[in-house]
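Batch 3, record 17
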Amino acid sequence: MIVFLHAVSLTFALSVLWILLSGYLDHALLLYLGAVSVVLCVVISWRMGLLDREGHPVELVFRGLLYWPWLGKEIVLANIDVAKAIIGWGGAAPDPTMFDVRASQKTAVGLVTYANSITLTPGTVTVAAEGDRLTIHALTSGAVEGLAGGEMDRRVRWFEGTRISDGRIPEGGA
Amino acid sequence: MIELVLDAVTALFLLAGCILLLIGGFGLLRLPDAFARLHAAGMIDTLGLALILVGLMFQAGLTLVTVKLGLIAVFVLYTSPVVSHALARAALAGGFRPGARHVVLPDPSSPKSLPSGSGEGRAP
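Prediction for the assembled complex:
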């Protein structure tokens, strides 16, 4: 059942993407070819077993729409922080540090979102991920403090949801 | 009149984006090692990219081109952290050691802090 719903949602998403990228709605041949490509993609995804909460996490779209603006704000602030460190504005200087943070996410999607959010914010890069421990390389002390507060971890934990029963990370690491 | 405003907004966004790209390029040259340089590259493909694409969106107006510019941003924002991570991992696996201090953070979720020496073996 869940596979069927994901197939429907993937078909819808791919059709919308195809129409937006093409822009031609009055060419029967193009629409036909587009429909064939969409069906082919969905069938291949189904055969590969990708139609689940991890391969097509459509359940997270609405939470994602609330998470992305916050992440965008963090990215802008981090960009300014790193830019200051590079050009030495007001005595700021690069101070590279390595440290570990614990990721409290329960699903693979949540863990990847957290690790990628850390990398996406300039000033911090996820160098390694083993189990629930992420090794971070940070450029400035401001970036370290930002992560040490754990706000991003809490927000990604909210983003991944709590009712998720499948897609859990197997014991002993991702 | 409205076109003049749109052009001015575009110019502002492109100028801000260009300044950010310049600082990022400067960082790529100035920062000490590959790991630190990743942060400068991260600046270029997050805010630098976003500012330039938003500037172009004001030129495209409410058309499919704007949607496509938005899709470019989405795809780059989803793929660039994977590339950065792969690069950092490959550098580490290749025996490259970052010239960075190792610190142990207190764990906010539990009173017991992370075991010390977690950065062992990675010291420069």
